[in-house]
User: What shape does this take?
Amino acid sequence: MTTHLLSLWHEARARFSNQLIHLYEGDLPKRLNHSPNSVGFLLRHIAEVELLFSKNVFGIKDIHITAKTVIDKKDSGEWVNLEELVKFQNYAFTNLELAILKQSDEDWKQVIETKEFGSKTKSEALGRIISHTAYHAGQLAMVIKYGK
Assistant: This one.
């Protein structure tokens, strides 16, 4: 089951990951009209939430993350270094991948509780992080294409 779920996550996340290779540093401050989130903010936010899932849902306790985008709830304009953001994205990807791989087939049935979304099995929580990343990947594509 774990390998199937990992494949599902890889395929879903590719909708986001494939955008990273076409980004330029000049894309990072782009926004849509009065949208509160820039490209750089979205990149940082996706990585932070993936790291939070690795730690709080899948039990990888040695991850130390300060989720500034989640805490601030608004774009501060500080996410403008493409190399740092891509490095952070890779860190998030690797840690969530390792967290998924550490789950046994029985672990996917385990119910976890978080203040953000209540009680979910780990497999349901995986669906939530997949949809979260896909949601923001769609936003990212629109901002990159039409943003200023």
Observations:
- The domain at 2-146 is CATH 1.20.120.450 (Four Helix Bundle (Hemerythrin (Met), subunit A)).
